[in-house]
Amino acid sequence: MPSPLTSFDRAMSFLRATFDRLKLSTKEKTLLSTPQHILHHNISFKLDNGKMMKVPSYRVQFNNARGPYKGGIRYHLEADIEEVKALAALMAIKTAVVNIPFGGAKGGIQIDPKKLSSSELERLSRAYILSIANDIGPDIDVPAPDVNTNPQIMAWMRDEYEKTKHVYAPDLITGKPLSYGGSLGRDKATARGGFFILQELAKLEPPNLRNARVAIQGFGNAGSEIAMFLHDAGAQIVAVSDSQGGIYSYVGLDPIRIEKYKKETGSVRGQYCKGSVCDLKRLKMDATEVISNDDLLLTDCDILIPAALDNVITAKNAKNIRAKIILELANGPVSPEADVILKKKGVIVVPDVLANAGGVTVSYFEWVQGRSGDQWTAEKVDRELKRIMLQSFDDVRAEAKRNDLTYREAAFNVAVLRIVDAMRVRGWVNGTKGK
Ligand code: GLU
Q: For the chain, which domains are there?
């Protein structure tokens, strides 16, 4: 049975375990369990047929003890308040794990954007940013892309904000197009950061990346890019999938070819199947099989990379996972119950708050460039990203070793201690003002 908990319950379950390990005070626990601000607006925008559509939208500003709120905006039917709250809390942890000077936030619009035309999407994005314009800003809250949002959407949002506020604000939002204040390397940053961690891990744990067998769920930006990095490093990509299902090959798949066919046909299976009808001869010739998303998670492989949805590894399937290492490129793919089972099985889980933190790290570089007017080279972005990812992995590994913890437990310890430290020195915990 899938976890009966909400996304927020699941995030809180990881946090509460951390509070217990660190013996936090009641005040500290309350501050870290409660979003500081919840913005909720039912926003209206015009459809191409002239009618108005109204949709619920959110921005949850979870904690800003360490700096301005930071986090993406997702467009998804399931982006309800519970999910946005959970993701905002995870962002506060993530920015603290990589020690960049931000807090945590998340935005969400409860809509299926695939049903909208480009002009409808633009009107929706402008309406959303207008609804929160007074509560965000380069020093207050810095949004970014997330599920189903992209650089074009960030550009519309910055443009709308600048027009409304009569300001120049290249540091308002990150993940922008290169021609309008974006940073080199932002598009591949999530995958690149995860790849750096796997390279480090491979120095400690078998297998060598060169011989590793990898299965990847989700072939969007993060999933496809990490497939390329791993393929270039000599790993064998044995399985990939997207929302329409997946393919498996024991001899290995070519991610460049998959990307090409996905672009042409709309799915990773598209080169073999039209709907549910597949070309069995071609599949056999390529030693490839069609698999479901559930099968993908149970693939016999060394490294499993969930890079799509949350809550896909649960109490139901965790015991049957065969991978030795799980790299969480998606946010929240492993439920708390599954986490316990994986720990018992000895599966190494690199948690989302570390594994996919490359994205927000390069967002930080973009924000710095926006504030200074400077433009970094691709080499500088890559070098700095590597430095931060390796330092963060070192911090987490040292904490794990010191206290005999999993990487998730250690990452949460490191992050919560950093946030609590900031709250203490700011006088939020014992000060006369509180917060
Ligand atoms: N949406 C990404 C994440 O979940 C990036 C957030 C950002 O760059 O602010 O980490």
A: 37-171 (3.40.50.10860), 189-355 (3.40.50.720)
